[in-house]
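Suppose a colleague, Dr. K., hands you the sequence of a protein chain of 986 amino acids and asks what its three-dimensional shape might be. Before reaching for any lab equipment, you can write down a predicted structure in token form. Begin with the sequence itself:
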Amino acid sequence: MFTPCFIFLLIMAPGLSQEAETAKATEATTASPYPHILSRQSLRLPNDTYPLSYQLHISSNIHLGDLSFSGNATIDIEIRRSTNEIVLHAKNLSDIQITLRLLDSVNHESAGELLDYVTHSYVPHATFLIIHPIMNYQAFEAGQRYRLQISYTGLMGTQPKGLYWMPYEEEITNRTTYVAATQSEPTYARLIFPCYDEPGFKSNYSIKLTHSSSLVAVSNMPVLELQNQGELTTTTFQTTPIMSTYLVAFVISNFEHISETYRGVTQSIYSSSTCKDKGRSALKNAVQTVAALEDYFGVSYSLPKLDHVALKKNQGAAMENWGLITFKEDSLLAHGVTDRHKRIKNMLMQNHEISHQWFGNLVSPEWWTYVWINEGFATYFSYLITDMLHPEDHVMDIFMKDEAEHAFSYSNFFDVRPMTYYVETEADIMNVFDIISYKRSACVIKMFHHAFHQKTFVRGISHYLKKFQYSVVNELDLFDAIQAAILEDALFPQQTWSHKIRDIMLSWTHSEWLPIVSVIRNYENDTITFRQRSIHSKSEHWWIPLNFASAQSPSFDNTHVEYFMPPLMEHTLSLEELNLKLAGSDWLIVNKQQTGFYHVLYDTDNLQAIARQLQQNHTVIHAINRAALFQDLAPQVERNEIESVDVLFDLFKYLEFEDDLAPWSQVADTMEFLDCKLFGTTTYSLFKQFVRRLVTPIYLRLFQNQDANEAAMDVLVRSDILLLACRMDLAECLDYTHRVAADYFFKKVNFESDYPDYYTIHDSVLCMGVSHMNHEEFTQLIDLLHATDRNTAFFDDIIYSLRCTKNHRHLLHYFNLLVGENSTYQLMDERESMLYLSYVYKSNMAARSAIWHFIDHNYKLLCRAPNFVQLFNDMAEFLPARQKAFFATLRQNIDMYRQLEHLNPNHTLIDINSRRVGKKMRNSEEFLDKFEHQIHNWLLKELPPSESEQLYAASLAVGNGSNRPTSLLRVARRMVQSAIGVKLRF
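The predicted structure, expressed as tokens, is then:
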């Protein structure tokens, strides 16, 4: 089920007020005789004291629907440096009572003198709980150990932060039961108990939970003892190894479980009783994956058990707590969906969290600066291990689509930063769990896994895990372990770079952007010049691992580095120095299987040689490199920087025979871009005819000749092919999507049996199907919307699909229904309304005129949104020149109203004369000025004469305005047929 983001946001909202109320609790202890304590600026804990062990006892009556809990935390601490304060974290905790005892200097387990001269204060902005002497001259001396005992109460939240709750409706009895669970990462352990809530402060945890005897408690470790006290039971767990606070976890529930023990590790799947049998495939996968990771790294899993718990609510899809992984239900359990891609996605999700048991749990980052070490390794090795266990599914192809493709394009959509990036506030810490930490880092790790030889790299990782187990690290610890393995294996004895692993890897972890390597062959003197530059203008340079395949040496299997380009702007080498043999007409490919995380650009002659090879026998060049050709050229095309558009279309020609989905995944984006640029020109019909010829064979294979055992990658790319085929007006595609959408909405067809691919591509199918519905069908769909329960997935599908209609009147009706002043469905607040309008504006060209019309009639409502000015200014970049006068009047009216109402005075509407107004459209005009004539001539030569002459005559009729009413209708019809399906381009 697809859930629109605005519905998700509304679900999140109810918990906010509760947190605001409970936030007052801890702050009640802020009275302090020392103002300097409360004015502390740093948000980091001092290193003066250190936790040696925790004894944590939590009591809950969640079975009664009671959301309060009580806790007792006993923390043994050591004074590392003399200080007059002990600082730890606590948040939203009440009734705090603290005692402090000096531990016996000989027997540290024996509590001694009770110190009655201490009190405590609270620093709200840092969530610091500070224990300090009443008198300023008293201090805690270095080397002393203390036992800190803190009793407190708290309140469970509705959102997965700290200790939270969720209701379950029992199907048979209709009785409501309650489950309590924890989410401690990244900074939420302080909501559960007072603690040193930073990853570098590792310690042992002895956990006790008192709960209803009708419920079961699980935590990081196996149960040590059960003490039944009538209606209540206290579950005591074995003491954990030393670990970070963000991994502390427990769940109290009436869940049932299935288990299997292998190699001394018991793994269990916990879920509600109705879902018990749906966890069997997850259990099988977990057992296989733990064993595979143990064998691959030569490091055993550290705990005696590993539980996997399926919850209705979880932060993200899953959380890697050591020994107790929590999941959203649909990310763990098989609900009868036969979709192969969904099954693999669940395996990858589970294997990501299992990989964390080594990367993050056994070895942890000393601070969130290095969160990429956790997430990058877990992401990459989840794919690698799954691929090893299921080679038939070609999971590393999915990595290229789901991870690498996004990592290559992240700078177009997100704020950039280095992988290694210091953060301090809670919000900034949360924000580093992003595409850079997951996807970019995984790609960089993959690059060095291949460059340094896979066995050598894994040997280095094994050294790293063994040396730093139960400890914390920074990136240099990782790099030095890899360096040691490279020197041990002596695979690069003559290479000076083999002693510079720190420098090499730092050039990647401390850079913000992505390199472009230009490969310029000098055909007269047999040299190659390599130039590197940032994808943006910032002066950054990298150590870049290069390897080569060529017409005379066409093997793409060996992906280790053959030459490390130093961090220089330009470097020229002879073919002899590179150990290459090339004739002038031979092709050369750099970056085999795109294992390196960089773009490659070639001179035009080399591209023509590659195009000739593709047309003769495209399988000689590896499928991933065929895909990379188009991915690497895409930024050049989009910035109007490509040297020759003819060579781009020469590369396209072979696609008629391309049966692999990897190249199509990349080509679809470039075709979409060209579709936008050529729309409405005399070349457009020729272009669509050409692309229809290319896409027809692969479309028919995927949608009319379906293989029940098709690869998961085929399922994944199916949406791209469908969108491209429908945009190009392929009759089979238009008929298929219209039929499927009508069957689903009006006949309530069971897609699981009749359209098994629905679960992967239903968004695209329904969008395309609705985009071609007539007025009668649109009206019928609106009536159906009114009659549908808004809490169902079916309602979501209707709402989301209606955005794809291309009729101006239908779009206005839809916007008024959804976000207008008298909206029938108040699904979004003002901020979300603007986000949604901006999304539709950028994804549906046919909607742009309707959206300006809608804003013109509803700006008094919309401009109250805090993000109105930003998104209004962004949309202005797409403004056609012909609408500039309308835009000027609209802008003036909005500005006057905002001043009258004093709305967001610090935000300024874009100036009508700003270069940003119409910027995207000017880019299109520049593209057409530069390339349309070339494309037109190329297509005329390529298409059969009868077809090209007929299409050319039709396009001229539109272009010169002859028979004007007909030509205008034709243009309008083209808009309706071609505009939808464009992905977001910010």
